Amino acid sequence: MPRALQAIGWTQRPLPFLERCQRRFGDSFTLRILHWGDWVLLADPDDVKRVFTAGAAVGVDVANPLLGPVLGARSVMLLEEPDHLTRRKLVLPAFHRKGIEADAEMMAAVARREVGRWPAGEPFELWPRMQAITLEVVMQAVFGRGEDQRLESMRERLQALTEWMNDSRNLAMLAVFGPRWIVRSRSYRAAMAPVEEAVMDEVRRRRAAGVNGDTDIVSMLVAARYEDGSPLTERDLRDELLTLLSDGPTSTSLAWAFERLLRNPEKLARARADALDGDGAYLDAVVQETLRLRPPVPVVVRRLLEPLRLGGYELPRGATVAPCIHLIHRSVRYYEDPLRFEPERFLAKPPGTYTWIPFGGGVRRCLAASFAEMEMKRVLRIVLAGVDLQPAGDRSERVRKSAISFSPDRRGLVVAERC
Ligand code: HEM
Fold this sequence. Notes:
Elements: H1 3-12, H2 14-25, E1 28-33, E2 37-42, H3 45-52, E3 58-60, H4 67-71, H5 83-91, H6 97-101, H7 104-115, E4 123-125, H8 126-143, H9 152-166, H10 168-177, H11 180-184, H12 186-209, H13 217-223, H14 234-245, H15 249-262, H16 265-277, H17 281-293, E5 302-304, E6 308-310, E7 313-315, E8 320-323, H18 325-329, H19 344-348, H20 369-386, E9 387-391, E10 399-401, E11 406-408, E12 413-418
Parallel strand pairs: 2-8
Antiparallel strand pairs: 1-2, 3-5, 4-12, 5-8, 6-7, 9-12, 10-11
Helix pairs in contact: 1-2, 7-8, 7-20, 8-15, 9-12, 12-14, 15-17, 15-20, 16-17, 16-20, 17-20
The structure holds protoporphyrin IX containing FE (HEM).
Protoporphyrin IX containing FE binds near residues 76, 250, 360, 365 and 372.
C-alpha cells in the first residue's frame, strides 16, 4: 500500500490494521507510514526479548509524534545512552516500591474525594473522572502533599493541555501534517506555554527556598547531581517534569478496567467482593488482564544502532523496530481464548516476561510501572466498594486512538448509584 494509505490505516483504525497485516504477513512485517517512517513490527516474544536485551545495540525512537514536542528532547524517554541511564538512575528512586507504598493512602484519599463528586442516577463519562484522579495523584507525588491551593492554576493548565492533546481536530491535523505542525500551531503554544510557566515557577520557587529533604519528586530532582557534581539544567527539569505530569496511560487503563468489568457481571461481582473484603489478589488479576486486553500503548519502538537478526531477517543499523504489545497480548499461542476478559488466567499463572509487556521492557521499561499498578488497584478498590456502577447503553465500547494512549470511544459512559 502507498505510504499515505498506510498512514490512514494506522491513524484511523490502527489495531484492526495491525491484525490484518499480521494475518497476511505473519509475525514480522514492515509498516511504511507517511510522517512516521518505516517500522518493522515484531509479534514474536523471542524477537521482542532479543530487542529488549540488546543493550547498546538499540537506541531511542518514538512511536508517537506528540511526544517529541510535548516532553522535550531532555526527557528520560527521549535521551540516548549514556545520558538516558544516568537520568533514569536519578528519577527511579522516586518510584521504588518501598517509597511508593507511602503513596497508597494518598491515592485512596484522592479517589475517595473524586467519587464523592459523581452524579447519581444520570450518565457521565468515566475517563475524564479517571484523568482527574491520575492528574491529582501524580501532582501530589511530584510536588508533595498539602500544596493544593497553590497548585490550583497548574492543575487547570494541565487539564487544558490534556484536552488540547485529545481534541480530535488536533489529532487529525497531526495525522495529515505530521509532527512539525504541532510546533507551528498557535493553539498548541497557547495550551503549552502556561503549563511550562507554572512548572518552571515552581522549580524556581523550590530552588530559592532550598530543598526540604527529598520528600517529593521535584525537590529530589532539584537536589540531584550528575556524577560531575552539576545539577539538572532548567531544560532538563522542564522536560522531566512534563514527562511525569503527562501520564495518560493510567487513566485510560482505569476507564477500560471499569468498562470490561461492567460488561462482565460475574467478574464485576468477584472484583467487588475482593474490594470489600478480600486479599486483593483478584484486583491484581483485573489490573493485569485489563493491561493485556486493552494495552494503552500498543507498540514501543527502538532504533537499531547495530545490525540485528530479527524475525528471520538481518536488519540493518538505523532500522526502526517495533515490539507489538497488542498483537502478542491477543495471540492464541500465548493466551487461551485471548479476546475474552478473564482475570482468572492470571490467578492460575503469573504474566510472562515477554508475553505480557504493557510497560515495554529492557532498560527503557516504564519506570513507574509499580506505581501505576498500585494506583489502578487502589482506585478500583475505592470505586467498587463505594459505588454501584452500571454501563450506559448496550454495546461494549470500541478502542479509539487518543493523544497518548488508546481510550474507550464513548469515554467510559456509566451511571452511578451509591452503594
Ligand atoms: C498503566 C499505566 C502505564 C502504562 C501502561 C505505561 C506504559 C509505558 C510504556 C509502554 C513505556 C515505554 C517502554 C519501552 O519503550 O519499553 C513507558 C515508559 C515510561 N513511562 Fe509509563 N506507563 C504507565 C504509567 C506511567 C506513569 C504513571 C508514569 C509517571 C508518573 C510513567 C512514566 C514513564 C516514563 C518516565 C517512561 C520512560 C522510561 C525510560 O525511557 O527509561 N508511566 N510507559
